[in-house]
């Protein structure tokens, strides 16, 4: 069931009621529904080598049935966790649909994760199977739990490693006969790992009904509905991020819209070429990607079919928004959301775009700016916590096997209402638009990547030369912010450029490369409270003050 286009935000927000959900649901049901139209296009795929493929929903449905039978033969069943470390290739969408048919739980992982990152995720989820591409399979050597199936797609360089099953070869003779699992609202279907301000990454667990929460997002933010069959939606987010589900998987396919996927390194000029070549109509990317693209000759590319520019994952600055809208001729629709709680605040095609604003509440989503302690909604102009009133269909089931951390996200108001506290700060203006004011904790949102400072600090401090380290967000013209490490060295070590490069290389070897500190400053000591706790906020404020002074 798709929603009609929104022509007046305020009327929709006042009268909106969510569609009644079915008793049971699977993402595979959505794919199978569109597959009844044999010619309906589901996916266009390209890569850096110039290869390309097209798939209809009927083809995706058939391939996912085959894959589900292959996985079932490998011992994967309902409730089993499956590590999925697959890049932007068609098998990504096919795997997710196949796992939904089985009622298994997908655990998306970045291909840039290191062995240390994977060891943690394997230990936390105890998977029944690992799915990856052959070039990434060696990362799992010595880590695979007993009884865990190993399947790899023959994509990219290298030979199929010993002990790994060729997924494509197994699918060739597999049956397409399979009955999809009947899943209820409380059944887990997806675990996304996301960083916090302290400790190890958190496993955000969403319902197998994940797709049901995208009705409003697809219809109102992306403006996709029954009239959208001509749309082609390109979401550039990596397969392990929630924004990928929004813009490449759940969002467009819920609406029956064709997704465009490109597997290749980020090249701003190439992005513009592909938008023009393939007639992309909706482009969704992190704000930093638009900043890099504005360094190209945008006017030299035919963007006449592009009708909407979408962004999420990091705060969008007004100058970037204004310039991109002027050069591309499109509306720039920013949205705010979290891995835990979907996109809940957005700009919409039918509303006034106020560059720099997060936008207005998604119709039907109980989001507000509240007092951090009492949860009382705050008047316009006052900064408070962004919070969602429960119950709310788009909210996570909880953190994987961590009820204490889950409960810590919720607070009760005096009237007994329960609120999910996002950890982000904002204020509303007189018209109800939200304006981002930063994080209440120290999480760093760099170029759309959510990075926990404790993870990076731990990697830096594992170097023998380091005594102490504190990592914060530092303003950056292209990426919005980057990770900066303030480092205190042991006696006998020089804080010079060579040491900075050595620490950066060390961190890249310890954890996923996107987390490494792009800036390093050496100090004699770190600022601390009287109890000895490092004051990250003081260092972060210092960086922002320096940035303001530099342009003054």
Architecture overview:
By secondary structure, this protein is of the alpha/beta class. It has four domains: 152 residues, Rossmann fold, CATH 3.40.50.980; 156 residues, Rossmann fold (3-Layer(aba) Sandwich); 76 residues, Roll (Luciferase, domain 3), CATH 2.30.38.10; 108 residues, ANL, C-terminal domain (GMP Synthetase, Chain A, domain 3), CATH 3.30.300. Helices cover 28% and strands 26% of the residues. It has 15 helices and 27 strands. Strands 2-1-11-10-12-13-14-15-16 form a nine-stranded mixed beta sheet, with helices on both faces. The radius of gyration is 23 Å and the shape is globular.
Write the layout of secondary structure elements.
Blueprint: H1 9-15, H2 27-35, E1 41-47, E2 52-56, H3 57-73, E3 81-85, H4 90-102, E4 105-108, H5 115-125, E5 129-133, E6 149-153, E7 165-166, H6 167-172, E8 188-194, E9 202-207, H7 215-221, E10 232-235, H8 242-254, E11 258-263, H9 268-278, E12 282-284, H10 287-293, E13 308-311, H11 318-328, E14 331-338, E15 342-346, E16 360-361, E17 367-370, E18 384-389, E19 398-399, H12 403-407, E20 410-412, E21 418-428, E22 434-439, E23 444-446, E24 449-451, H13 453-461, E25 466-476, E26 480-489, H14 497-510, E27 519-522, H15 536-551
Parallel strand pairs: 1-11, 3-4, 3-5, 5-6, 6-7, 10-11, 10-12, 12-13, 13-14, 26-27
Antiparallel strand pairs: 1-2, 8-9, 9-19, 14-15, 15-16, 17-18, 18-21, 20-21, 21-22, 23-24, 25-26
Helix pairs in contact: 2-3, 2-4, 3-4, 9-10
């Amino acid at each position: 069931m798709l929603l009609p286009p929104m022509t007046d935000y305020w009327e929709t927000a006042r009268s909106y009621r969510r569609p009644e959900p079915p008793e049971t649901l699977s993402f595979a049901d959505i794919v199978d529904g569109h597959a009844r139209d044999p010619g309906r296009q589901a996916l266009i795929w390209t890569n850096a080598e110039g290869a390309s493929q097209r798939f209809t929903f009927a083809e995706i449905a058939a391939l996912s049935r085959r894959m589900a039978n292959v996985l079932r033969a490998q011992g994967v069943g309902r409730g089993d966790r499956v590590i999925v470390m697959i890049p932007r290739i068609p098998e990504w969408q096919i795997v997710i649909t196949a796992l939904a048919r089985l009622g298994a739980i997908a655990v998306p992982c970045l291909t840039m994760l290191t062995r240390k990152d994977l060891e943690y995720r394997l230990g936390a989820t105890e998977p029944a199977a690992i799915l990856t591409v052959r070039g990434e399979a060696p990362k799992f050597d010595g880590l695979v739990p007993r009884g865990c199936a190993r399947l790899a797609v023959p994509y990219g360089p290298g030979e199929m490693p010993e002990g790994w099953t060729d997924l494509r070869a197994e699918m060739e003779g597999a049956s397409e006969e399979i009955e999809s699992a009947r899943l209820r609202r409380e059944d887990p279907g997806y675990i996304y790992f996301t960083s916090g301000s302290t400790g190890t990454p958190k496993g955000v667990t969403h319902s197998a009904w994940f797709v049901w929460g995208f009705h409003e997002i697809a219809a109102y933010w992306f403006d996709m509905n029954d009239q959208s069959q001509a749309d082609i939606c390109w979401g550039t987010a990596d397969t392990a991020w929630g924004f990928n589900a929004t813009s490449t998987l759940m969002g467009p396919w819920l609406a029956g819209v064709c997704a465009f996927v490109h597997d290749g390194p980020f090249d701003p000029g190439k992005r513009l070429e592909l938008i023009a070549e393939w007639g992309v109509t909706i482009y969704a990317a992190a704000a930093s990607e638009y900043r890099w693209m504005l360094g190209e000759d945008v006017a030299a590319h035919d963007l006449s079919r592009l009708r909407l520019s979408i962004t999420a994952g990091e705060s969008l600055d007004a100058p970037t928004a204004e310039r991109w809208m002027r050069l591309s001729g499109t509306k720039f629709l920013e949205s705010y959301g979290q891995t835990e709680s979907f996109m809940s605040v957005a700009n919409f095609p039918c509303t006034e775009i106020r560059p720099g604003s997060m936008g207005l509440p998604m119709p039907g989503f109980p989001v507000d700016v509240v007092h951090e302690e009492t949860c009382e909604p705050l008047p316009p102009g006052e900064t408070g916590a962004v919070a969602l009133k429960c119950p709310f269909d788009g909210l996570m089931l909880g953190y994987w096997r961590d009820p204490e951390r889950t409960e810590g996200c919720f607070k009760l108001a005096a009237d007994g209402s329960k609120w999910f506290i996002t950890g982000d700060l904002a204020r509303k203006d007189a018209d109800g638009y939200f304006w981002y004011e930063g994080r209440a904790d120290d999480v760093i949102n760099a170029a759309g990547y959510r990075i926990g400072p404790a993870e990076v600090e731990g990697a830096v401090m594992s170097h023998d030369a380091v005594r102490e380290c504190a990592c914060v967000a530092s303003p950056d013209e292209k990426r919005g912010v980057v990770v900066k490490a303030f480092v205190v060295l042991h006696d006998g070590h020089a804080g010079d450029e060579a040491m900075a490069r050595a620490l950066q290389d060390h961190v890249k070897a310890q954890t996923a490369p996107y987390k490494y500190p792009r800036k390093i400053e050496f100090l004699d000591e770190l600022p601390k409270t009287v109890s000895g706790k490092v004051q990250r906020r003081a260092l972060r404020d210092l960086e922002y003050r320096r940035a303001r002074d530099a342009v003054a």
